[in-house]
Inverse folding.
């Protein structure tokens, strides 16, 4: 009796391993085979008396392509892959696109001016790393925390300004 329990446990472990193995499930079909003695075997090769399993979430591998050998394909230069646009794909004429780019440039310039003003205000309050202490900052650690936050704000604003300038330079 112990042998059949162990064999059953081994079968369950094997089945669980096959089911949980993403590589096995994604690469091949799994077959359940029962031999003349009633032993169950799971395999990736179909034999007589085997039945293909319908595994949940299983996506069979695509069938092998029949065509020229890979060496033959590699020797012929592949044409550049141009993505064709559908016939009904909307097109924007040049003048309309130029107007959109001008609007975008104006919005980005406005954001840039706002960020530059914010940076000037932050630097003024920061006072070269020595901002004035506030009344609730009797504890020096609170003061240091606020100064560190101010440094972070200044650094973030500088990065925003760089990104806006880069974005403006990319507009045609």
């Amino acid at each position: 009796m112990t042998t059949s329990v162990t064999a059953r446990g081994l079968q369950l472990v094997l089945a669980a391993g096959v089911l949980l193995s993403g590589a096995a499930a994604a690469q091949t079909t799994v077959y359940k085979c029962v031999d003349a003695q009633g032993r169950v075997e799971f395999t990736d090769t179909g034999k007589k008396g085997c039945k293909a399993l319908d595994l949940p979430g299983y996506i069979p591998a695509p069938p092998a392509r029949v065509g020229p050998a890979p060496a033959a394909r590699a020797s012929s230069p592949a044409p550049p892959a141009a993505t064709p646009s559908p016939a009904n794909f909307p097109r924007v004429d040049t003048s309309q696109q130029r107007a959109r780019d001008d609007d975008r440039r104006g919005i980005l310039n406005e954001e840039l001016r706002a960020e530059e003003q914010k940076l000037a205000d932050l630097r003024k309050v920061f006072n070269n790393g020595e901002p004035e202490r506030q009344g609730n900052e009797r504890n020096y650690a609170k003061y240091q925390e606020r100064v560190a936050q101010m440094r972070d704000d200044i650094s973030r604003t500088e990065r925003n300004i760089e990104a806006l300038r880069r974005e403006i330079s990319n507009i045609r």
